[in-house]
Structures are given as C-alpha cells and as structure tokens.
Amino acid sequence: MLTITYILAHWRLPFRKLSAMHHYLACPILIAILFGLGAVTTSPPLNAQELFIGDAGNNTIQEFNGSSGAYRGTFVTTGAAGLTGPAGMIYTNGELVVVNQNVNLPLSGEIFRFDGKTGLFLGKLVSASDVNAPYAPRGIVRGGPDNVFYVADVGSDCSSQGDIKLYNDAGAFLGNLNRSRFTGGFFPRGLVFGPDGLLYVSVFGCPYTESPNTLVGYVLRFNPTTKAFVDVFASNQTVPDLHRPEGLVFDKEGNLWVTGFRATTSDNDKVLKLNGKTGALLDELVLSTPPAPRAYAQAILFGPGDRLYIPITGGDATTAGELRRCNVKTKVCDIAAPAGNPLQSPFYLIFKNSNPATLSYGDGN
Q1: 161: closest CA among 208, 93, 104?
Q2: In the predicted model, what is the mean pLDDT of residues 104-115?
Q3: Pick from 260, 156, 133: which is nearest to 202 by CA?
Q4: Record: fold of 4-351
Q5: What are phi and psi of 65, to 5 degrees?
Q6: pLDDT of residue 344
Q7: Where exactly are the structural domains of the chain?
C-alpha cells in the first residue's frame, strides 16, 4: 500500500495547507543536468538550439547551448519578480513564458513573461491576484484555432478537481475546457497538441489520497475548437504501466511518448511509447530497474537529432542530475554531463525553437 509519505517522496504534488490560505508544496528535490548534444545533419540557427531549464531548487531559469551542452549561465536570476517554483515553459513571440507555482506561499499560481534574449522580467501574463488564476499550475502550451494559452491546473484537493484554463495573449481568462463528460478524477499535469490538432492531456487520480488513486493514469483528448472532451486516448487500464503520467510529446512518426512512474518497489520507472492513432503501447524506455536506485523523469522533450531529452531525478547521487539524450529507435542514451552540477532541482525544459503548441523541435515559432 502506498502511503502519503511515499507519494511525497517520489514526485511533486500540489498539497492543501491546513488553513484558509492556498498553498503549494514542492516535493521532492528534482535534480537534472543538461548534457551535450551530438551533431545533427542539418544545423538550425545557433539561437534555435538554446535550451532553457527551470530550476525549482533556487528559483532560476538556466540556459545551455543545446548543441554542445555548454552551460551559458543563469538566464533568469533567483526569485526574479517573485519566481517561486518554475514549472511549465514555452518560448513564443520572442518571450519565455514560465508558469510560477508559488511554492510554499499562500498564493495561487501565476504565469510570468521574460524577454527571450535578455531574461528581463516583462510582466505577469496572469497574476496570483487574478480571480481566475490557476490554483496549482503545471504544464503550458499555446495553440489551437485562436492561438491561446492552455494551462494545466491540478486543483486543490479531491473534492475540488483541476481544469485546463485558457488565457489570451493579454492574460484575460477565456474559460475552462469542458471536462464534464469525463467521469474520472481530473487532476491534469502535462499537455500537448497532437498531429490531429487535438489537445492531449496527462491526468492522474487524486494526489491527496493513498493507493489505488496514485496508480491511476490517463491521457485524454480535447477538441480546441469546441472546448469539449473527446475521449480517453489511453489509461492504466489499456496500458498497465501508465501510472501518474506527466510529460508527453509526439515524435516525428506521430507516436506519443509519455512518462510513467513505478507502481511498486519492484517496478521500474520508464517512458512509454504509444501508438499515436490508437493509444496502444508500442515500447518502453526503462530509466531504472530495481534493485538499482530509482532514476525517473517527469518532463521530456525532443530536440536536435530527433533525440528525446530526459531529465533524471530520483535522489541517487550517481544519476540524479543527468539529462539523458536518447535515440528512441535504438533506445541508446548518451550522458554528456555528470550528475549534480550545476542545477539543483530542474523540472521543465524548452528549446528556443520548440513549437509552443506541439513542443516539437525545429518547427519555428
């Protein structure tokens, strides 16, 4: 039986403060280090290969050269404009747009805007004081027929589920996606637009209770034009290893890659490859196998050379702090930088040339 202690020790959750004030607790320390990227056949412009990684350990955004892996320094300084718990990020219209979780503060979440060249704070797209600010935001994308921002809000407790919130480019709240036809618990984490134009959302069972809710996992689809729920694309019933999914991204063949966490102490942590049309399991990229120490990931992203970039966490000094670059066809992963340096607790990552809707690399934006 999983316990709350186990849950909080193995992935980040929004947690309800025992008062009338809102609260967001970050557990545990998530450490990932960027490593060098190999040569690609066609080299995009240098600035297209810039990689930004949010570090919740010191509330910064760090910058790396996506081609060489060279560390370029701090792009957004510690706690700039109140940045406390950076989560989902996208690069759009020359700006780095960052979800701010307001970890351990009696505030709702926010969305910050930074200059994409200098890292200068430009303002808040959505402020914690806004009536319709996301309570506990995670992933963010921008797209759909009106090119709006979609933000996954996990929710506050089991009786107050989450939503996918929509905002325009001025930060005005446009409403929530209609999840009324989905009968399961709705606690969304990651989201991405698929090749079919639908919005894919990773969802898990209530994070505030013990098993079996903690083993529940879904990938749901929504129609961005009608705002309506379409269907359950995959779940832990159809893909048994789909537990507590978060990061999800499509490859160039149209297959969906999504993170999956272990179900028991004898299970392994992995990234799942799903058929992009049927949701059926095609393959698994195992990150750690017991009795070896855990090495798991939450946010994933495709980058140069069609490699999948996987930040590794888990608390073990020999692996925590890696960012693995994996060939998804051979499942061979490179590690070009050692663990534990220089990031403390990285979570989400984005290339300057990642499409803000599909998160695919090299499409321009």
Answers
A1: 208
A2: 96
A3: 260
A4: Neuraminidase (2.120.10)
A5: -80, 115
A6: 74
A7: 4-351
